[in-house]
Amino acid sequence: MQNEPSYSFSALAARFHNWLDAAIESDFILQVTELIITGVLLLVFLVLLCFFLGYMERKVAAFMEIRLGPNRVGPKGSLQIIADTIKLLFKEGLTPNQADKFLFNLAPAIMVITALLAIAPLAFAKNFQIWDLNIGLLYVSSISSMAVIGVLMAGWSSSNKYSLIGAMRCGAQIVSYELSVGLSLISIVVLAGSMQISEIVESQANGWWIFKGHIPVLIAFVIFIIASTAEINRAPFDLTEAEQELTGGFHTEYSGMKFAMFLLSEYINLFIVSAIAATIFLGGWMPFHIGGLDGFNHAMDYIPSSIWFFGKTFLIIFIIMWFRWTFPRLRIDQLLNLEWKYLLPISMINILLITAMTIFGWHF
Amino acid sequence: MEIFAANQHDKYIIDNRHDDFRLAFLKETILFLKDYFGSIFTSVKSLLTGMKLTGYYFVHPKEIVTEEYPNNREKLKMNERFRGEVIMPHDDKNEHRCTGCQSCEIACPNGSIKIVTKMEVQPDGKKKKQLDTWVYHFDMCTLCNMCVHACPSDAIVMGQNFEHSVYDKKQLKKILNKPDSKLMSGVEE
Question: How high is the pLDDT of residue A1?
Fold first, then answer.
């Protein structure tokens, strides 16, 4: 590929692969080594990301509520989240006497594992992807919906009625909003003609779908943002952990690192949802291109693709945080009304519209 | 419908009703759709209004109202109306302005003030009620400022000290008049 910038991750990854290939004889050991290295790098990346997202959330919350936010530990309070993590590490991990101990301890692991699995097909930069499977979007949506098993497991095994009610609410919420998320994903699959992440990104080389698909895709984008905010249990849809009513929802009984794992999975899910939205609607790592203007497109190519990807992702993360610190929490009946009476009918009609648009070629 | 129509006349009426029903149904549908999209529009509008406000706050850090906990105790200047604790100013001759009238004790909503008075012989031979001890239970005080408002002779004011934490609760019981202090002359007239 010509014009490939030298600062791309892919060149580094390829060089590293060649070096390992020369050093290790057996194909099997080579693959296992690369898998382990990828896994460790991914974990380190995600933990750092969660530190950053935690800090970002607290600062965004503070500024939106006319407060200062953390400002004691480290410059501008940037080390506060690390101090919090250390505090959580030293806390005792309690298990209630009456709890189903096996399921109770398994639930946080399931939450984190589903969150980690869903990150595999994401394209972080040009030609830089862990696993480019041909059913990428289907894989992400099916894996991320498995989180509901972890939630129900946590709520049921705690042997606490608050936890159980919280888990039931959360289950109802995730299962309902999954439909709208799925329909919004399908709308882009219809347009791009593929479920493979790399092909979806390539299909936006002459303009992102949100511009090319105009009004119907904009509706799908809004529905996707709303529904996925609900699916990852963030405010204003955080009634599963409404601290005034349920004292903490399905993770009432969790403490210490087990609680931290729920927190970790929440932030990873936030990142995944934003990354998916950025990939399918805003072009992923694809720079801002306008069909026909070659000079302009070429100039845009000089900005590294990973900067494009993370810029778009953090824009959407910021919007979701903005929701959280602006909107009041929904009641359970309002929540289900919103999904079943508004989002689902609208997205069903919208998908018809998008299909017609694709068939008749009404998009740019 | 025809089953119920016994004769031509009845049939005509029922058909007519059917038309009315259709019309009503159509009207109701239109009303429903109007309500449906109207509610979407109004709710999106109100949500955007909220987001506009928080977005404005986000990009205007000058609006922040929180005060940082002061590290620079020397340069610190609290607001004039800040209520830290009740104090009784004494002048350099160790004189205060309290006449022992007990207005503050009556005004205090939760009884955190206790005024002990004594009878003292004046130079002209008359006996007169005077302040003995002004007991202040800071552990109960809500800093409501009522005692300062009630005081007829401006003997007490609100101080600026804001760091009161101690390990022993007994230290929060304070006696505000200094030992051997006297009533300032000219307060009672």
Answer: 38
